[in-house]
Amino acid sequence: MEKNIAHMDLDSFFVSVERLRNTAFVGKPLLIGGTGDRGVVASCSYEARAFGVRSAMPMKMARQLCPDAIIIRGDSQLYSDYSHMVTDIIAEQVPVYEKSSIDEFYIDLTGMDRFFGCWQLTLEIKDKIQKETGLPISFGLSINKTVSKIATGEAKPAGQRHIIKGTEKPFLAPLSIQKIPGVGTETYKTLRGLGIKLINTVQEMPMALMDKTLGKAGQVIWKKANGIDNSPVEPYHERKSISTERTFDKDTIDTVKLESILTAMAENLAYQLRKGNRVCACVAVKIRYSDFNTHTQQIKIPYTSADHTLISHVKSLFQKLYNRRLLVRLIGVRYSDLVTGGLQMNMFEDSEELVNLYQAMDRIRNRYGDSAVKRAIGLGARTIGRMDNPFEGGPPPLLANRKT
């Protein structure tokens, strides 16, 4: 059966939401992120991009490039709410979809053509989203995820593109190699150093040469350049989570020790989120007392993977939960409602220095281990455990219980 995969992407999502709230922003260059010179651009309008402004750029540089831009801090909770609205609409219309980020979706329409026509169905979904939320959205439709995602990029803003089976290579050929998902800055520099600028150059190369140059990544790039991608649409489940627990050999009432362990747990899981390129929208804390009564409390939050934000919520939940003054047998932390996304959601309030700090700490952890860097308060807790890549091969597994 011929595959039909649609990719849908909300256009300048944060900007579009802000323009719904304030129509004065329509048609104006708009920057969203940290408002000070040390802030970072989380998102920008197409009008600002025309001046060379890009996401993750230092706000000071963005102001120099586009001095007339309107700058606002942004509202991550509002963006999360709109993301859920769009997700609900898609979930009502299709049997299988993947929410790959806060504003991006893959939809498996295979077999639907015999009933509705995949192109027509995707158009109807797009129209429904725009009508019910007011947000512009673009989509691409093809036989696989890679070609559909690239087609969406070519259709923006507020457009659509259908790549008929058999036309994948000619469609991709004239495009920049940077259009291929997974080709980042460093890989692009390497390819440019070899004289590779357009996708058709890779199409004309033998896979063995790409393998020799970039190893396994070179093989993947070669396949994508040739319109080959067999990766499935991973069904989205709002409740997918990552968690860890600690059972004590001896029940404790030492709140300093408990807070230290919870902080270490929260910090480690936040690192695992970033390592898997995920953000979460729900935090939960679990306590089991010596009498085996177990209590859990959770809170919905704007999408994030930042230590300081998550640790603050974990501490707050613990303080609300721990009111019986009984010996504690087990404590645990869980992050759920995961979607793909890096630190972007935190750029609204965090400085460039803080973003750079997280990236530096993560590089140290990647090289020397999860416990190579940790907060002082968490030094009293033993290593929580390690998940080399908790997001490959299905939903994130539960970290093994550890005794202390």
Short account of what is shown:
This protein is of the alpha+beta class. It is 38% helix and 21% strand.
Keywords:
404 residues, alpha+beta, Alpha-Beta Plaits, DNA polymerase, domain 1, Dna Ligase, domain 1, five-stranded mixed sheet, 14 helices, 14 strands, globular, disordered C terminus
User: What structural class is derived from the secondary structure elements?
Assistant: alpha+beta
- Continuous helix count: 14
Gyration radius, rounded: 23 Å
Termini separation: 53 Å
Question: Which percent range describes the beta-strand content?
Answer: 15-25%
**CATH T-level fold name of the largest domain:** Alpha-Beta Plaits
Number of strands: 14
Outline, from the CA principal axes? globular
Helix proportion of residues, in percent?
25-40%
Q: Low-confidence spans: pLDDT under 50, at least 5 residues?
A: 383-404
What's the overall average pLDDT, rounded?
A: 84
Just name the CATH architecture of the largest domain.
Answer: 2-Layer Sandwich
Order of helices and strands: EHEEHHEHEEHEHEHHHHHEHEEHEEHE
Described by strand count, sense and barrel closure, the largest sheet is: 6 strands, mixed
Q: How many separate structural domains?
A: 3
CATH superfamily of the largest domain: Reverse transcriptase/Diguanylate cyclase domain
CATH class of the largest domain: Alpha Beta
What would you call the quaternary organization? single chain
Molecular structure report:
There is one protein chain. The protein has 404 residues and is of the alpha+beta class. It folds into three domains: 163 residues, Reverse transcriptase/Diguanylate cyclase domain (Alpha-Beta Plaits); 56 residues, DNA polymerase, domain 1; 163 residues, Dna Ligase, domain 1 (2-Layer Sandwich), CATH 3.30.1490.100. It has 14 helices and 14 strands. Helix 4 packs antiparallel against helix 5, helix 10 packs across helix 11 and helix 12 packs antiparallel against helix 13. It is globular, with a radius of gyration of 23 Å.
